[in-house]
Amino acid sequence: MKEKLYFYYTNDLHSNFEQWPRVAAFIKESIAARNVRDNDYWLFDIGDHMDRVHPISEATKGKANIQLMNDLRYDVVTFGNNEGITLAYDDLYHLYDDAEFDVVCTNLHSSDNQNPLWLNRQVKLTSESGVRIGILGLTAPFNDYYHLLGWHISSAFDELDKYVHELSHETDIIVLLSHLGLSEDQEIARRYKDIDVIIGGHTHHLLRTGEKINNTIITAAGKHCSFVGEVILTWDHNQKKLINQEAYATDISEYENDTETEHKIMSLQEDAEQRLNYPIVYTDYPIEVRWFKNTKVMRELTNTLREFTKADIAMLNSGLLLDSLPAGKIAYKDVHRICPHPINAVTVELTGSEILEVIRVSLTKQFTEFQLKGFGFRGKVLGEMVFSGIEVVSNFHPNGEKYVKTALLPDGSELDANQTYKLGTADVFTFGRLLPEIAKSDTKHFFLPEFLRDLLVKTLEEHYS
Predict the structure, then answer these.
(1) Beta carbons within 10 angstroms of residue 113's beta carbon
(2) What is the mean pLDDT of residues 345-358?
(3) Contact 231, 9 (CB under 8 A)
(4) What's the pLDDT at 63?
(5) One-letter-per-residue 3-state SS of 220-245
(6) Fewer CB within 10 Å, N or C, the chain?
(7) Does 403 have pLDDT greater than 80?
(8) Distances (CA, A) of 55 to 117, 336, 453
(9) Does residue 432 carry a pLDDT above 90?
(10) Residue among 352, 53, 457 at smallest CA distance from 224
(11) DSSP 8-state secondary structure symbol assigned to residue 318
């Protein structure tokens, strides 16, 4: 006898709740079809379901995301960096307290060895006919952040060496829920022949019909749940082995919204608005935000950053603030609206010559107009760089492009090319190739759990009350 087993999954929603009613419609329709045919099925999430860019997730610290997955009766989830490193220790420790599903993360450890009750290293499922399925979960090792928050992420391969061997003797099928990214998933498939399925996320890759490496099928459904994934495994009971693996990612953009889920999100939104509506300051005049202009609020925010990080010099890009604020009451929801990014402060140690190169690049038109996507940035363009603790003396080329003549310290002296300085900035610049000198610095110190919007609150309280 041959039996098909069905697995549905989502990954990297990033609290894109406008899409969630379509996800609910697809899942409900798919599960109804499985129930009619009396098929076994399970529902998984691969992490980054939560993103504090959205007021609902900000107000509830991700608890609303858990409610929404409970409503659809998820079976097993793992979590990503947006759950793992954007919440304070206690908030992550209690994030899944009310979950009606299993949470699996094979490589997360509390630094005090007091792991939360919801944390499983492995999960075992069994079909109605007795097929045994072992589930592992892995999340990306951002230990520079996790260690500051009281957690540790161990090596994915060390954990797999242990648990894959164990599950290969105790289960018939092994499924890995991986919030590691495509290249890591591919390497795992090459190394571990006993893993039958890797359902991935993190790098937002879309594999419409999966990718087969050795004995493993790899799949992922992009980002923001524009697609929902499905894996179909065929088990031969006579041969007692898996004989076929299929993977599909379905575009759900044409699906009608599930009305019940739509109403639930509206209710959550109203609740979030109320929770975040507490006042920060009252102002008699508007606060101007301009992406390509050095404004007072950006200067004061950059000064706050320098004081908070105890840096010699600080710099922030004006594109971090998305909109101006009108006169009158400024509530926390307004701060969140104009500074929604899950971005932290960081200090790096650079020489004066390296800082001059950072300044030079940051003032180019190519940099200020760059439309960054990812690395925690949720804005439109990077915008004008604003500095604290240093005066940048610039001029313009005949073509109108700004260039740096020199940089002066508060005492009027020039930046020493050979001296090392502590530079405070946004952690977004420690990733990728935007500002290579910052990214490649060997000395980085991140400040958690505060986001830049927490520093904006402090700035408003101190300078706009």
Answers:
(1) 6
(2) 96
(3) yes
(4) 98
(5) EECCCCCEEEEEEEEEECCCCEEEEE
(6) N
(7) no
(8) 27, 7, 13
(9) no
(10) 53
(11) G
Distance CA 151, CA 400 (A): 49
What pTM does this model have? Answer: 0.94
Amino acid letter, residue 363:
L
| pLDDT confidence of residue 407 | 87
> pLDDT tens digits for 317-327?
999 999 999 99
Which residue from 383, 370, 381, 387 is spatially nearest to 434, judged by alpha carbons?
370
Give the pairing type, strands 206-213 and 216-221: antiparallel
Q: Is the pLDDT of residue 216 over 90?
A: yes
Q: What is the structure's pLDDT at 39?
A: 96
Give the DSSP letter string of 27-72: HHHHHHHHHHHT-EEEEEE-S----TTSHHHHHHTTHHHHHHHHHT
Question: Can you give the three-state secondary structure of 343-387, one letter per residue?
Answer: CCEEEEEEEHHHHHHHHHHHCCHHHHCCCCCECCECCCCCCCEEE
Tokens in use for 349? 């140690």
Mean pLDDT, residues 395-408 taken together: 79
Coil/strand/helix, residue 213: strand
Distance CA 179, CA 45 (A): 10
**Cβ-defined contacts of 164-167 (< 8 Å, 24+):** 164/136, 164/192, 164/194, 164/195, 165/194, 166/122, 167/122, 167/134, 167/136, 167/194
